[in-house]
Amino acid sequence: MYSRKNPTDFHLIIKPHGPICNLDCTYCYYTEKKKLYPGVHDFIISDELLEDFIRQYIESQDAPTVTFGWQGGEPALLGIDFFKKVVNLQNKYRNGKNIENTFQSNGILLNTDWCKFFHNNNFLVGISIDGPMEIHNKYRIDRTGKTYFDDVMKTIEQLKNHQVEFNTLTVVGRHNAGFPLEVYSFLKTIGSRYMQFMPLVERINHSAKDKELCLVTPECKTNTSVTECSVNPENYGKFLITIFDEWVRNDVGRIFVQLFDTTLANWAGESPGLCVFDKTCGSAMVLEHNGDLYSCDHYVYPEYRLGNIKYTHLKDMARSDRQMKFGQNKLLTLPSYCTRCEYLFACHGGCPKHRFEISPDGEPGLNCLCSAYKTFFSYIHPYMQFMSDELAKKQPPANVMETARKYKTYREAEKTTDKM
Predict the structure, then answer these.
(1) In angstroms, how far is CA 236 from the centroid of its own chain?
(2) Whole-model pTM?
(3) Strand, coil or helix: 292
(4) Mean pLDDT over residues 112-129, rounded?
């Protein structure tokens, strides 16, 4: 979710309906989390636990703004009345703080009533969409194989009609990595000004039994392979570069791509605002429907369960030695190959979930997307340096566009000369 940038001590993704969803996306890493709760059929947070969570979360934040991130599964399955209750509880415990809400959805169930509610309560809505119809429908299906592209398009139009702030989350996998301009142009056409491109990388344990999780952590080494849907690193690097080329010539200051914003922040020596490219992580946890707190949305495994808010205050778990160690390990377990890299400042090893490859030096812990990131950072280096310098002079980074257009014209003329 490409959320509003406000300072908070830590951030939570809340799964009030657990992994329950109206879709059964081929690549989803979360629907199988039902296996963590055998015998449970009602994956809905109780009223008592919901109130306790909202109170604890607000109490835990020292910053003036507290942001709640509602995800799933599909949170819209809970209905509007559930979220009206949420807003009432937030007002009850806000204690003078500003409350913001983000809501990540596949968009299928959102209608006029939802849009009115979002507008009236200033919700930021994230819509999951992977590109034009033939791309989006490739993996985003329900249990019968039905697709819902048209429903999502109708929802986006209603969000715009009701002046609801929204952004888009695009999973980049084997289905769309080869079509970067098609995806980017489509997202602009539907009115997305804030885009997040999330690389799809999951590994499957071929020895997993029926009641065990199939998708594994980086620590699992035996009988595993990357899933068929996962993105190829070389294709991911080309995907990013192609979109960046279009963006840096035409859309800086008009279209905001999370990865580009994050990279510019690192180039300028500022906080990136995204754990993936920060030195350490651990400040973005996930709360399950029953009150279980896990170290990260991508680490919902028994060994990364921190406890339950019924028995331990949220603040104590979030600031525990165990969670601090989880966050510090991102820095402390970097292979020496990474520490020598000229782009360490921009990458910081990437997401620990993706660090399961062996480095050229023979050390474990290399990010499987390393080659993609190195290619990308190398290509954008001069543009990022230009924008960083502009920021230092208190000038708009968008000034880069004229230079980028001239450089493209020069390169094209150079290629023409070479052919003569």
Answers:
(1) 16
(2) 0.94
(3) strand
(4) 98
What's the CA angle centered on 199, arms 195 and 200, to 5 degrees?
Answer: 130
- Among the residue ranges 1-15, 47-61, 278-292, the one predicted with the least confidence is 1-15
Question: 327-367 pLDDT, tens per residue?
Answer: 999 999 999 999 999 999 999 999 999 999 999 999 999 99
Pairing of strands 357-358, 364-366: antiparallel
- The answer to whether 297 is a known catalytic residue is yes
Is the alpha carbon torsion for 133, 138, 140, 143 positive or negative?
positive
Q: DSSP characters for 180-230?
A: HHHHHHHHHHTT--EEEEEE---EEETT--TTS-SB--TT--SSEEE-TTS
Q: Which two tokens stand for residue 137?
A: 């429908």
Do 390 and 400 touch, CB atoms closer than 8 A? Answer: yes
User: Do 118 and 164 form a contact (C-beta atoms < 8 A)?
Assistant: yes
Q: Which of 142, 151, 261, 297 is catalytic?
A: 297
Among 240, 233, 260, 221, smallest CA distance to 346 is for 260
CA-CA-CA-CA dihedral for 15, 328, 222, 215, to nearest 10: 10
